[in-house]
Every structure is written in structure tokens, then in C-alpha cells.
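Dig into what follows:
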Amino acid sequence: MSTEKDRFEADQGGASAIEFALVVPVFLMIALGILAYGVYFGAVHSTAQLAADAARASVAGLSDAERTEIASQHVATNSREYPLLDPAKIQVVAAPLQSDATQFRVAVRYDASALPIWGVSSLIPLPSQIIERTATVKRGGY
């Protein structure tokens, strides 16, 4: 003879729905985090690559003013090749290092506030919206 308690213990029909309701929000937060950080790290890598390429290009300059112009022109010309970067939001600062005059430093600063990932910032902690990467080369290329 089946009692009410036996029937209740045997009925597992709603357990899947409850487990689904508990697991899906956590899974979606992890998936959104992976997507948001993937886009952010892509923008960081693009900024770093742009700074390194501009620093290498600046080696051709004969003076600091010419090196600065070459680095700035390189960033302006090549920033369109990076789909995560908006060329209008990029700033370039190029100058010799204060601590070592034989080194030339190129800093690329990008305002990433237009990336679509900031819409989930209330759910997922995200890093700074300003990305700055630098690259240093030996003046004269030797």
C-alpha cells in the first residue's frame, strides 16, 4: 500500500526545473564574463600591439620630433585595422625616456568606454575603461 510520503519521495518531476532555475543564472553570468573579458582583452592586446608597432616605426626618425611624428602617423594610419579600437579615441604620447636618454617611449592610450561590454558592468566587475600601453625602443635602433 502506497502512502502519501512514498508517493512524494518518488515524484521527482519538478526537481529538474528547480535545478535548471538555480544553474542557468550562474552559467549565464560566467558566459557573459567570458565574453566581456574576451572583448576587453582583445582591445588591450590591440592597444599594446599598436604601441609596439609605432615604437618600431619610430626608429626611422633622425630627431625626437621626427620620431614622435612617425609614431603618431603610424597609429593614425594603422588603428583602423583593429576592429575593437575606435581611431577617434586613441591618444599617442611619444618622447625619450627621462631616466635613460638612449630609449624612446611610445605610449598609446585608448578610451574603451564605447565597447559594448560596459552594459554588463553592473553584473560583472570589469577593469578600467582607459587602456594605456607603452613600448620602448633604443634610439637609433641599435
In short: The chain has a mean pLDDT of 89. Helices lie at 4-10, 15-58, 64-78. The beta strands are 90-96, 103-111, 130-138.
